[in-house]
Design a protein that fits this description.
alpha/beta, Nucleotidyltransferase, domain 5, DHBP synthase, 3 domains, eight-stranded mixed beta sheet, 16 helices, 22 strands, about 20% strand, globular
Length: about 550
């Protein structure tokens, strides 16, 4: 059974994937191919074509197309159901008109409409995490800005069944609150939330939390009227304005409130369904500081968040959900890595390199040992290998790397390579065999999506890959899932005694992560990366 999964073009981050008998074969985000950050409100045309080409298929070879959003007609009906007349009818008409326009943008041509299956947005989010986790059962939390008629769901999952217990309205959206405060703090919504999460560590949270949250129900909820009043009274910080202690404290209070609220949701779910497994999805699940707190809860033995937790992941979730529905079976496939995008041969890489006059390069006899020695010598390396990663965080195939023990390396990369705010942290990629060297009670973290407190004795060793509050969000690197990256770090370990490297995404601020050799070379030439290790080639600026 071949299932093509697509995000609905109404989504903010768009992507496509393809499953064969419930196993993911290929997946890529549209932004990596069209080079438009997030590709908001854009049909995943190029991403879909990549997935089909990966298997040598055409659309007519596909058994079902799964879309990670309700159809326009269903959204319109749901709006009538949850709204009072006549505003409900007006809202429904708007949803219908807008939804039809977006659906016409889907690149499905003459594909049979009875084989196009729309999956509720948050059900797709939930399926993207639970069905990819390998857990037999789990509690699941999905939270984002909005997703049709709701902004979140709390669910329990067992074998093939997903049961939604609570929904969170768009008016009470946790993702929306985070977005709005992000904007008031002077950053772009849908893009700058990670900056606010990083900034939070520099402030002091108000113990009372945000004033628009009600803590007296089964789960914490947002009073929409009070939230609107709070947001309206906030003074908008212009992008050029300095960041004050007040801004830092607001960020800290926002982060602290979110963490306590989602912990409350996890606690309620565990009372209803005492499963040791927790899955998270939705854009809010990219908040690694929150995820780290959840991972350390005494009743959470295992936690899983797939790397494209935001809207891009609904393409995968919709496809997995349709597979379960049509086959009657739970997928046997488990998502152990994020490498599902395009890759390039040494011949293709060399052809790209030959087109530049301001570089010199050679084919390395041992790319791992040579690159590791360059890292030990203090060089900043662009590392381009294998299939591109899924999600917003580079995981060792499209990465910028450095020695994490060098004081000031964080500032050097922020200033001269990434061109981004100085408070934003980087992360260490750690050989999975050595993660206990840096943190207590570590959990497997292949997607760099969990934050942990760093052992005091180890802070100096990874000083430039740790945050101001002493936390790290490590990627545990497995030899089984990324042999090349594991071998590089292992060679660095042999030379330096440090089983970790500083890792950040191979891009500069506000650009998508590089996908092709040409994009990697152009970025290398236009920022402070000192050496490019691409395929088996080492590249230097002249």
């Amino acid at each position: 059974m071949i299932i093509l999964g697509l995000t609905h073009p109404i989504s903010w981050n768009n992507a496509a994937c393809i499953l064969v008998d419930g196993k993911l074969i290929a997946m890529v985000e549209e932004e990596r191919l069209n080079r438009i950050k997030h590709s908001p409100r854009m049909a995943p045309v190029l991403a879909m074509q990549y997935c089909l080409d990966n298997l040598g298929l055409t659309l007519k070879d596909v058994d079902y197309v799964a879309i990670g959003f309700d159809s326009a007609y269903k959204l319109a009906i749901n709006n009538i159901r949850i709204k009072t007349m006549p505003s409900g009818l007006n809202q429904a008409a708007q949803w219908l008109k807008q939804g039809i326009i977006y659906e016409k943008a889907l690149p499905l041509n003459d594909y049979p409409r009875d084989k196009v299956i729309f999956v509720n947005h948050h059900r797709a989010h939930i399926a993207s995490s639970y069905f990819a986790s390998g857990f037999d059962n789990a509690n699941v939390i999905s939270l984002d800005g909005s997703g049709g008629t709701e902004s979140g769901c709390l669910a329990i999952a067992d074998d093939k069944k997903i049961k939604i217990l609570k929904t969170i309205s768009n008016q009470g959206s946790w993702g929306l609150a985070y977005e709005q405060i992000t904007e008031k703090l002077g950053f772009r919504r849908h893009s700058g939330e990670g900056k606010v999460m990083g900034l939070a560590a520099y402030g002091k949270p108000d113990p009372a939390g945000l004033p628009f949250v009600n803590w007296d129900k089964d789960i914490p909820y947002i009073d929409a009227k009070k939230r609107k009043e709070y947001i309206n009274q906030m003074v908008l910080r212009n992008k050029e304005d300095p960041i004050t202690d007040e801004h830092k404290d607001i960020a800290a209070t926002l982060q602290d409130t979110l963490e306590k609220a989602v912990i409350g949701m996890a606690e309620w779910l565990f009372k209803v369904n005492p499963s040791p497994n927790l899955c998270l999805a939705g854009g809010t699940a990219l908040n690694c500081s929150m995820n780290g707190k959840l991972a350390q809860l005494p009743f959470v033995k295992n936690i899983f968040i797939q790397p494209a937790a935001y809207d891009a992941g609904t393409a995968l979730g919709a496809a997995l959900d349709v597979y379960v529905e049509k086959s009657g079976m739970r997928p046997k496939w488990v998502m152990k890595h994020a490498y599902w995008g395009p890759e390039f041969t040494n011949e293709e890489i060399e052809s790209s390199l030959d087109g530049y006059e301001d570089i010199k390069f050679h084919r390395s006899k041992n790319i791992y040992r040579e690159t590791a020695q360059l890292l030990k010598n203090g060089k900043i390396i662009g590392w381009f290998q294998g299939r591109s990663e899924l999600g917003p965080r580079a995981l060792g195939n499209r990465s910028i790397l450095a020695d994490p023990s060098i004081p000031g390396m964080k500032d050097k990369i922020n200033n001269f390579v990434k061109h981004r705010e100085p408070w934003r942290p980087f992360a260490p990629s750690v050989l999975e065999e050595h993660i206990d060297r840096y943190v207590e009670n570590a959990k497997d973290s292949p997607f760099m999506i969990l934050a942990f407190d760093t052992k005091e004795s180890m802070k100096k060793e990874i000083i430039s890959a740790a945050h101001i509050d002493g936390t790290i969000r490590p990627q545990t690197v497995s030899k089984d899932t990324n042999k090349k990256y594991w071998e590089l770090i292992n060679q660095f370990y042999k030379i330096s005694g440090i089983p970790a490297v500083l890792n950040t995404s191979f891009n500069i601020d506000s650009q998508p992560i590089v996908n092709s050799p040409k994009e990697a070379i152009d970025t290398f030439l236009n920022c402070g990366i000192e050496v490019l290790a691409i395929g088996d080639y080492l590249v230097f600026k002249i």
